Amino acid sequence: MNDFEKLLGVFRVTFGKPDLDLRPSLSAADVDNWDSFNHINLIIAIEEAFGVRLKTREVNSMKNVGDLVGILNGKGAAIAWPTSA
Amino acid sequence: MDFLIPGLKLALADEGYGCDVAPASFDGWIPEALSGSVEADVWVVWVSTMGVSVGGSDRRSLPVAAIAEAASAILKRGQKLIFLLPEAAVEEDDPASPVAAWRRGLCETLRQALPSGTVTVDPDCLQRRLGIDRWHAGRYWSTAKAPCHPDAMTALGAEVAVTIARCLAPRIKAVVVDLDNTLWDGVVGEDGVENLELDANAAGRPHLHLQRFLKDLSLRGVPLAVVSKNNRDDAVRPFLERPEMILRLDDFVAFEASWEHKSAVIARLVDRLSLLPSAVCFLDDSPRERAEVRAALPELAVFELDDDPELWVDQLVRSRLFAIPAVGNDDALRVKDYRAEIARRRAADEMGVEAFLSGLEMKLRPMRIDARTFPRVVSLVHKTNQFNLTNRRHGPAAIKTLVDAPENYAYCFEASDRFGPAGIVGVLIATPEGGGCVLDTWLLSCRVLSRGFEFAMIEHLQAWLAAHGGVRVIAPWNRSGKNALLGPVLDGMGFTPDGEVFVACPPAVPAHHCMIVEDTPCF
To answer: Last residue of a domain, which of B168, B189, B220?
Structure first.
């Protein structure tokens, strides 16, 4: 499993949506149960999956999945968007 | 509190309860509690250290008076209140930190201010069990106002669920315990009483630790019983001859030493205690005995004690089976009650019912319902299901109106027998109606059924009727599955159906063995 698939799995499990697809512009507004509660659950799941610690400033600064991927890659992850995306 | 909810729901389901959770607004619980607008069985309130200290930045004081007032309002409405005390702060890694003293002060103030009946939970225990690193995570306060790591909140939710479940009904109501190699190290019949290992600084330690644990349980209202394969003379000797023993013979409501199968002895005991097998825990070091009991009584809580006694008390505590959140003084009385009930039933088994009843020296004291007896009467009217003629769940105001009308018969009844007092067990309220009376409320606590108290109550009513020139008694039996036992009682006194009600003119009170004791008859 590459890091993109890992991230995709975390999103699908956290929001309970097995068909969810990721794109850089995807944000909380696009997923109906992406509320503040599940946002924290998402952060916890990502920290555990990638073995990283996200700072509060980082959590607050990200506006969409593209920002998140940028932060994670800055911490050593290798998330590559599929060519079709 | 959102992060508390998944663990709370899951663990409550595990305890057999479903629940709906409605989060109160962050600081709005006090006005909500005072307004009475919330329909809930249980309130869970956490005054968290992170909240009071605004994420660790401040040391605020608490609106203690308002909290206490809100807590009282909750309890007065009959709702339960689980109150989580401020948790240890991260600074308390250094015990000398001023934050530790400040937080302890908060806890102490709250404990003193909260009304009795509040169930307090100290997150300390859970923090210690999880470890400080898995608890503290200030960033979740910054991002989500969570006082600790969300995973720790889930664990706290589970802790709260167990507390709620134990408040609603204690899981274990009695403990049956083995003797040899359980309460002491050794076999008294073989090793001899003087050779049993009971040194608290050596191999006796885990056994004495268990004794202390059980002693504390019994002091908190859980009756203990011994079931041992032993000669009785051998079985009692350690209690009489070994001063190291913590449990004494009078700590047990029953002491059964015989060579019978333990399951048979326990089944009789559970029956005598009027408990469900699932509410009784059996502790025995022997896997063979446990298997025998479990096979015969699958519902009994047979505890899987480890091979190594050193682990027993830890196992018992961790099981949370014995968690008893709030205990009033009633419970010490309950242990005595159990003891009397066992003595009664054993006597009944041995001598036959009639001989037993005639030797019970039962006394029934009728008392006109007054301010002193009123709360107990209200409680009986609400709780009694089996012997309850009309099933009218009058509220306090309605009962007061009935009692205050001087033309009404409104009595409660205190029972006792040679095994001890049973308190107020019956209520009979009747209103006059053309040449007699109609029964508004007639009930008897299930603890004293089938002893003739019901007949003595009607006998007393008849004396009152006679003094007022009446004879006829109308019984509006509100028949249901639960109060079916009234059928034979009414029948036995010559009541016959008349339309919707049952009538006797006059009731024929059968012979009974209860002496009516009245200081000064009021009529």
So the answer is: B168
